[in-house]
Amino acid sequence: MDFSLSDEQQQIFSMARDFAVEKMAPNAARWEEEKALPRELLAELAELGMATICVRDDYGSGLSRLDAALIFEALSYGDPSVSAFLSIHNMVAWMIDSFGTEQQRAEWLPKLATMQAVGSYCLTEPGSGSDAAALRTTAKPDGDDYRLDGTKSFISGAGFSDLYVVMARTGASGPKGISAILVENGTPGMSFGAPEKKMGWIAQPTAEVRFEGCRVPRGNLLGEEGRGFTYAMTGLDGGRLNIAACALGAAQACLDKSVAYMKDRTAFGKSLTEFQALQFRLADMETELQAARIFLRQAAWKLDTKAPDATKHCAMAKRFVTDASFEVANMALQLHGGYGYLADYGIEKIVRDLRVHQILEGTNEIMRMITARALLAEHS
Fold first, then answer.
1. Nearest by Cα to 14 from 82, 61, 89, 73
2. Whether residue 212 lies in the annotated active site
3. 3-class DSSP assignment, residue 101
């Protein structure tokens, strides 16, 4: 078993971590205060090849899922909110690369690669969250067009992004009646709700995306009609790894902040590092993150090698890594005492940001269902 990274992977990680430390961490609080994604930073990330990470190298970086996990872990060391948004954009680009026609690839991937166009993903609805196959947004054929009607909720980038991959019902009820359709911002009949007021991910705009008689050409169908749900679930395998990596990188930042804080602080005439109980806390945090890191990278390797149990491992890794990362961040806040509760130290922001990683891309309860069903199927 070889757990080492290649020289190229080490360089990729170091480049992304340096960018996070220099360009993201110093500005994360300001972006949250302004409640605005930094378009100029997204353009800089695109110049580094991080806007189409897993897209084939005629239009993208052509990197692996493991490479992507390294990038998102490193970037989230600076700001998990912006990094997670970049993950969603990358999922959109990957779906177009994987399932789109050559015309769709040629039209959109160059724009997505440079962040001239930003992508968002529209699956969740007000009445269908975990039960995504129950979605009710429709796309009815009307001549040479589809007519879209319905509402998508909790959409990251709503109103900010330029292109939306929309899961809509083109057939009967159930997953086989769902198709994926590309909708460009500005299309008549498409509108956005008011920005949601959220606990975390404040820099990301999140809102409803509404369709009322929204007509798009039938050529905007992504892949085959009725295959959209399959595409969505396939895309979520990689998305779950990326979101887990974003949680891991931010939790590592919290641990590093905690070590530095304990070295600087004294209590009862001793450095905090001399208290055994606090040493044990650090040891547990380090152990949890190292275990999470190995698990995540194994799952990414399985997805890269198309292992038959890749989906199960992506679900397990997403559940384990996001739970462990949140607990580490929360413990870091506790170790900082009252200072951890203050915005100046950056810990409370990470705690708020990481809480949603246990919910999105499939709640961790759904990850348990996926894992259990796969396990039972293996023993049937």
1. 73
2. no
3. coil
